[in-house]
Design brief:
156 residues, mainly alpha
């Protein structure tokens, strides 16, 4: 499935809310999707973005790890359905929005946490999501710089 469609599905599922376990599962799903997209970009994305994409995959993986929450049931994680990235800029724009939603959801969960373990795992996951979003912004900036340089090269 196309990355943007999976991101939109994740954003809708995250917005649907539910109890803390369901929201944490959706946060985990979103982080796993960010990890998969980062890994794919690191392999087949534009060369100037590959280092940042590797960092994105690592950070999103850290976000999954601190939540220690694989999705329940027999279904594979949503990220396993990723078959193509589509247009890089659109993918990254949508992914940045998803990671912002993840941070907001985690703040809400952390503020309502009944136990310290949940609170601190949310804080660590917030950090990972925020840093991953920064990587996405860096990649979008690099894409914009690259696109701006192309007309200058053609004119020169």
């Amino acid at each position: 499935m196309d990355a943007v469609r999976l991101i939109v599905t994740s954003r809708r599922a995250l917005a649907a809310g539910g109890g803390v376990p369901e929201r944490l599962t959706e946060v985990w799903q979103a982080q796993a999707l960010a990890q998969a997209i980062g890994s794919r970009l690191a392999l087949v994305g534009p060369p100037p973005l590959r280092d940042e994409a590797t960092g994105l995959a690592d950070l999103a993986g850290r976000g999954c790890g601190v939540l220690d929450r694989p999705p329940p049931g027999p279904d594979e994680p949503r990220a396993a359905r990723l078959t193509e990235l589509g247009e890089t800029r659109a993918c990254l724009m949508h992914l940045g929005g998803l990671l912002g939603d993840v941070g907001i959801a985690l703040v809400g969960i952390a503020c309502a946490a009944d136990d310290e373990a949940t609170y601190w795992s949310c804080v660590e996951a917030i950090d990972a999501a925020d840093e991953a979003r920064d990587r996405v912004r860096d990649m979008l900036r690099k894409l914009a710089e690259r696109e701006a340089a192309l007309p200058r090269q053609e004119a020169g």
